[in-house]
Amino acid sequence: MLAAAAALVAVAAAGCASIAEGPADPSAGKVLFEARCSACHALPHPQDYAPAEWRPIVIRYGREAGMNPEEKRDVLGWLQEEAAR
Ligand code: HEC
Hints:
Structural class: mainly alpha
Radius of gyration: 14 Å
Number of domains: 1
Largest sheet: none
Shape: globular
Bound molecules: heme C
Number of strands: 0
Number of helices: 4
């Protein structure tokens, strides 16, 4: 029980480098993706990767793009929605 609580605290502390919980706003994510993920290279196409593959990519490059956890959640939501089409 204590170990589980400690693990939860650790996850919460790591949260600022990660992706926020809760429902994403994909339309906000699309705008963010187009504005911020095009800073260093051409935009990747959402269907270049499977929905599950986008999560580590957004964690890695969302940090490059200076996105907060909510922004990453929204971008990931949009990418996964498009990738699943
Ligand atoms: C600060 C610059 C920068 C920003 C901003 C950026 N990227 Fe990248 N991205 C790179 C670089 C550099 C590479 C090539 C990395 C390599 O070849 O190892 C890359 C490669 C990629 C790749 C190819 C796969 C890979 O890992 O090499 C994908 C997909 C990608 N970026 C997605 C994104 C997304 C999504 C965003 C927005 C959340 C984003 N990038 C924002 C610099 C950036």
